[in-house]
Design goal:
Elements: H1 2-22, E1 26-30, E2 36-40, H2 41-89
Antiparallel strand pairs: 1-2
């Protein structure tokens, strides 16, 4: 399985490298107030892909933090109920 993983990484790298080599044409991005940015198409695609991944991770983080908080509350409740159940099952010591 480890060799398959490395083979998959190598093939992905070669495909992405070929994509980058074939798409090195210069592009111009125009902004407000007549500002422009001249760079290659690969850089623009990589930048927008990275921003998209970052936005997706941030959107997911709120849900993840909410789930972690809920899991912590459930674990605390479980421990409290287990402790109460253990107290109820202890044998009574004769005096």
């Amino acid at each position: 399985m480890r060799y398959f993983n490395w083979l998959w990484r190598f093939i992905t790298f070669i495909v992405l490298l070929g994509f980058a080599v074939k798409n090195n044409q210069p592009v111009t991005l125009r902004y407000f107030f007549n500002t422009e940015w001249h760079t290659s198409l690969v850089v623009v695609l990589l930048l927008f892909f990275s921003v998209g991944v970052a936005v997706g991770v941030l959107a997911m983080m709120f849900n993840l933090l909410k789930q972690r908080r809920e899991i912590a509350n459930l674990k605390r409740d479980f421990r409290a109920r287990k402790h109460l159940a253990d107290i109820g099952t202890q044998p009574v010591q004769p005096t």
